[in-house]
Design goal:
The protein has about 210 residues and is mainly beta. The protein has a single domain (about 15-210), classed as Distorted Sandwich (Coagulation Factor XIII, Chain A, domain 1), CATH 2.70.50. It has three helices and nine strands; from the N terminus they run E-H-H-E-H-E-E-E-E-E-E-E. The chain has helices at about 20-25, 35, 90-95, and strands at about 15, 40, 105, 110-120, 125-130, 155, 175-180, 185-195, 200-210. The strands form two sheets. Strands 2, 3, 5, 6, 8 and 9 form a six-stranded mixed sheet that branches. Strands 1-4-7 form a three-stranded antiparallel sheet. It is globular, with a radius of gyration of 17 Å. The N and C termini lie far apart (about 65 Å).
């Protein structure tokens, strides 16, 4: 008789520095590390529908359906990882105590550096950064309406088609971006690691305070 093989969750990658919402959830005992590694959802976000990735990268694998509003920060995951989407009030209720998502102190226009840990470093198209609008409502979950309509930064490999350049389209362990120069106060940043040869991106979220 064959021995059944234990299914292990897919484990792909997460930001290890600075602290993301996922890292906070792990520290609180709400999530395991592998769950933060697997917050993947459709890579066409902020578009609403599945389908071809935009030109000039339409030879990449089609996107699956992007995350729905209110589930963006978890990459669309609605299981235990939904806690990543929680407002302060929702999290306080879950923990039965006062809670505020810890803030990373940043300066407008500064270089924001992240370090990734990958357990399955897929063929990478690039990285997309989004941020909340001025006047966004922290008492509401993050929706497309809460975010600026355009990413404030993108870092894409330009080689196409991806299957002819697989050795070049490598996931970046150390990655950085220049933050918007015109932001003040508390905001949420959404970082997407976009995969060329699947329909997904991996989502990471940060709470920041522009000084």
């Amino acid at each position: 008789m064959n021995n059944p093989q234990t299914q292990t969750p897919l484990r792909h990658g997460r930001v290890t520095s600075p602290s993301s919402r996922g890292a906070v959830a792990v520290d609180l005992g709400l999530l395991a590390t592998w769950q933060v590694n697997e917050m993947e959802g459709g890579k066409n976000f902020p578009a609403l529908i599945a389908g071809p990735f935009p030109a000039p990268y339409q030879t990449d694998s089609d996107s699956v359906t992007p995350p729905a509003d209110g589930f963006i920060l978890s990459g669309g995951k609605t299981d235990a990882r939904d806690c990543i989407n929680f407002t302060n009030e929702e999290m306080a209720k879950k923990l039965s105590r006062d809670f505020t998502w810890p803030l990373l102190n940043v300066d407008p226009g500064q270089t924001f550096k992240v370090t990734w840990e990958y357990t399955a470093p897929h063929t990478t198209r690039g990285y997309r950064w989004l941020i909340t609008k001025d006047g966004w409502d922290p008492k509401q979950r993050i929706t497309r309406a809460q975010l600026e309509t355009q990413p404030f930064a993108e870092d894409f490999y330009t080689q196409v088609p991806y299957f002819s350049h697989g050795g070049e389209l490598k996931a970046k362990v150390n990655h950085e971006v220049k933050l918007p120069a015109n932001k003040k106060g508390k905001h949420v940043i959404v970082l997407m690691w976009i995969v060329a040869n699947t329909g997904n991106a991996f989502y990471q979220a940060f709470d920041v305070d522009f000084k």
